[in-house]
Amino acid sequence: MTTFTSKTSEIVEKAKMLFGKQVDVIIRQEQKVVELVQNVGKRLLKLAHNPKVQKLTAPIQVFIRMIKAHFGGQHKMTLSSLGMIVLAMVYFVSPIDLIPDFLGIFGFADDLSVILAVYAKLKDEVDQFLEWERTQ
Prior knowledge:
Layout: H1 4-26, H2 30-47, H3 51-56, H4 58-71, H5 79-93, H6 105-121, H7 123-134
Helix pairs in contact: 1-5, 1-6, 2-4, 2-5, 5-6
């Protein structure tokens, strides 16, 4: 039986195969990251009408704040963590993924799986960030 951790790793690895090279380019250019965050914001607005989806996008909001704090110099993260977050966000905005987005909520399921898998992989760092955020 597959464990949660191995399933999480499997999901992330599939996303890396699809978008790994693109992520490597993006994380080295702050402007590209800013554009990605803007595109994520636009996609979130499109999904805002669905309350079920809205609740599930909370990790994306955390990722956006982490990226802003990182590039603002307030709370740095490792390059590998930044890459994982960017990977989740690229997967989220890309129309090309394992389940096509035009399938509505079902098409959003794989996007959410990647986001939650990255969130789980970075749980300690996310928790540290949220604690840092609470003290600001």
